[in-house]
Amino acid sequence: TQTITVDVIDPLTNGGSVTGTTKKNINIEKENAEVLVSKKSRPTKTRKILFLGSSVCGGLGAATFAESYQGLLTTALQAQTEISYIVENKCIGGNDTTEIIDRFIKSVIPFNPDIVFIGLSSNNEIIAGASTYAQASAIAKEYKRKLGIIISLCKQYGYDYFVGGEYGNNTYTVQSYNAKKQLNFQLSKWLGNKYF
Fold it and tell me: Tens digits of per-residue pLDDT, 141-165?
């Protein structure tokens, strides 16, 4: 078992400041350690993109694969010829930030992506059921903190990342809707922080 230290960074401040440190014990099997090195030998005209998140990022609600996030991106990338892209989807419906952190090593490292598209929703953190603004804001704050851990893991392993925005649904209370609007405003400063 190898112990890694992840700096929990809040990218919403100037350049990101360390707000805490999390230590997590992980197992990296021999083949996974080798795949980290293999990126250096990958042709520069080939890039790998991994979708990591929950149901919407995985395609739930799209009438066809072509209309999903992955399908739309794949179609757009096929239209250009300078770089070849390999796209993989590791989304699991209902996953929240804690579950993504817990499965990051198993889901991401074997594929060894150049770019990780993080597509989650605070709905899976139960923000929609918050009865007060204070409760919804606390959920949103913790959601943002854990997204910072996921981004820190991407940085630790040398992956570029893109954070997808929040989306609405019809189950919000006024309090949770207002907290989610504030969260989206904060995340909008994050979106496109890394891009390709």
Answer: 899 899 989 999 999 999 999 888 7
Spacing of C-alpha 98 from chain mean position? 12
Give the three-class secondary structure for 66.
helix
Unique residue bearing structure tokens 């790998």: 48
- Do 65 and 142 contact (CB within 8 A), yes or no? no
Would you say the pTM of this structure is higher than 0.90? no
> For residues 100, 106, 109 and 115, what is the CA-based torsion angle, rounded to 10 degrees?
-30
Cα 85 to Cα 48: distance, rounded to the nearest angstrom: 6
CB distance 180 to 166 below 8 Å: yes
Tokens at 189, concatenated:
């400063």
CA–CA distance, 58 with 65 (Å, rounded to integer): 10
